[in-house]
Specification:
Distance between the termini: 56 Å
CATH superfamily of the largest domain: EAL domain
Strand order of the largest sheet: 10-11-13-14-15-16-17-18
Number of strands: 18
CATH topology of the largest domain: TIM Barrel
Largest sheet: 8 strands, mixed, barrel
Structural class: alpha/beta
Strand content: 5-15%
Radius of gyration: 34 Å
Number of helices: 25
Bound molecules: ligand C2E, magnesium ion
Shape: elongated
Number of domains: 3
CATH architecture of the largest domain: Alpha-Beta Barrel
Amino acid sequence: MTDPNDTRDTGPRIGTPLWAFLAGVTVIGFTALVVAMLRLDLGPLVELARTPLFWVLAVLVVLGELRPVMVSSATAVGGTYPSTMFTFAVLLHFGLPVAVLMQAVAVAMNGVVTRKAWHRVMFNIGQSTLALTAAAVVLGLFGIVPSPAVPWTPAGDDLVAIALAGVAYFAGRATLVSGAVALHERRSIARVLRVTVGPQSLVYTALLGLAPLVVVVMNHSPGLVPLFVAPLAAVYFTATLSMRRDHQAMHDELTGLPNRKMLIVSTEEALAESRHDERVGLLLLDLDRFKEVNDTMGHPVGDRLLQLVAHKLTHSVRPGDVVARLGGDEFAVLLPSIRDTHAAREVAARLRAALTEPVRLEGMTFDLDGSIGIALYPDHAPDFELLLQRADVAMYLAKEGRTGVELYLPDKDRNSPERLNLLGDLRRAIDNRELRLHYQPKVGLTTNAVHGVEALLRWRHPVRGPIAPSEFVPLAEQSYLMRQLTAYVIDAALEQAARWWHSGLRVQISVNISARDLLDSALPERLELGLAKYRLPPAAIQLEVTERILTGDQAYTQETIKALAVLGVPLALDDFGTGYSSLIRLQRLAVSEVKIDASFVRRIAESQDDERIVRSIVDLVRSLGLRSVAEGVESEDVALRLADLGCDLGQGWLFCEPMPPAEATIWLRERFQSTPEIEYGYRPEVTQTA
Ligand code: C2E
Ligand code: MG
Ligand code: MG
């Protein structure tokens, strides 16, 4: 729930249920106000207005109406005004007419000071009058009808009457405000009440509970009444503090938008609430080429731009829709109730239109664009995790195909339920840091020296036992998890590299990344930060990418590759020979190493064809000034032939299987002692950039 007193809108459209509700409450509230005024005797009121107490109370009510005490629950924020304590005290002591009069004046003044829309001020006067009236009716049932002429001071036996009047007051306000919010955000009132009543009731209890004491003090020594500002301030600051903490945990610091955590809660709420005839939509939006801005203009401008994007997005959706920032240049939009795919596409188109409108910042014009993936509940997925995952599949298609917006299509998704289960397990394994890296050395075929190690992921599933990377990596590659997986691997590899480099073992670690990682413009930055964090040179790490990046549309990946070259992190081309790329294109890629796929290497001892293929690859790689590595070297025989062909390095079981870090450290140390003249790691002279 948003603050019901938010001033931004210009009022509901005439004839809508929200309009009818606001108008109804306003009319009935004002009728009650007029009726109360008619019952007010002017004589005693004028008399009362001559006492300082009246003015002290009036000032306290007006001041107490200026700032609300905000309270929050997970997804809802609601507030009440400190003035409640004093208006309720006035109600108890001087009766309903004086209380509603003071309250109405205070709300109107608050409206003027904070420039609220007039229809909201009217509604607030209406609803607070009705709540006070409800409390007065309860008091009346107990025979308590105070007036300025005959003020009432409660005693111990009136506790029940006061408590029930307080409950009536709270119930009145909570129902009327929640009703407006529910209609505004198109949610069920029961739900809105459920998430707001708990935290609000605490504050109301504190404020209303003090009111009878205010009355007693008023009666006894009015000069002491201002002392009640102290407990009021305590309530105010405690509530504000806890609210700020809750807000921080659930919101993104830079843009102020809800974060992933809050998106999860909101989505789950929307799913539980969703009606039979509507859908819940989840849109995933990723900015295109945002990295360029960050690079050329610097982070402060990038940050400003993200804030502008956040603003544009929030103003392109309806009230009740949730725009969240998931991190970096990735946003999500939750549509808690949407008619069909067509309507969801319309929202996506609107978001993109808002995004592509050029923005001026620092005297420059920026043309932004983004790719949006849409997934709908219940059509595409039954829960948040899957919705996000499927919106992501669609977003990836939109990005790859440069179509801008894509709806999730099951036939373009290769994920089965079992695979999705595994994906869920993998996410938990990453979160719990259950994945390990093993290291396999690359050895000089003629020199026998070590030229770096390759980091290979190992996952021991708690139920299924070890699962091969060839099973779970391709799965992750089709999902947003890949980003997290690669970030995890890079961090673990850099941490290991730091241990080795800072103890004298200058061995380069190669990390496998997927084509999808190259679409992530934040990758170079993550590497740069990691290298700085562990005080390592760029050459301490190398990235292995498969040949597939040579096929596909290169425009997006090229940016990342260029950024990596600038950073100085070398690239290797993995599994070479399995794809259909032309060898000539190799030249244009800034790679320093080509790894020949094991399928050719293994057979060179038997097949003349395979030997010819490997020979030509080795020759070409050499002529380009790059280094060749044979993968899957299992026998002495193969190693000798490879050396004859001029292949630089070999990797395989003949030399060593992938080893856990401790074992790898011992292995490397022994090697290092036997060939200390060789610099471990990569040779700078073979690094070439096209
Ligand atoms: P790859 O990058 O081509 O890794 C080489 C694979 O060959 C590894 O399989 C390694 O254990 C295996 N291998 C090494 N020597 C021999 C040998 O003599 N004979 C045979 N038959 N195989 C050998 P692994 O560890 O199962 O990894 C499979 C693939 O999974 C990797 O192929 C790589 O594409 C991917 N992968 C592994 N770890 C990661 C990672 O951290 N990130 C990403 N994105 N992919 C990874
Ligand atoms: Mg590899
Ligand atoms: Mg390979």
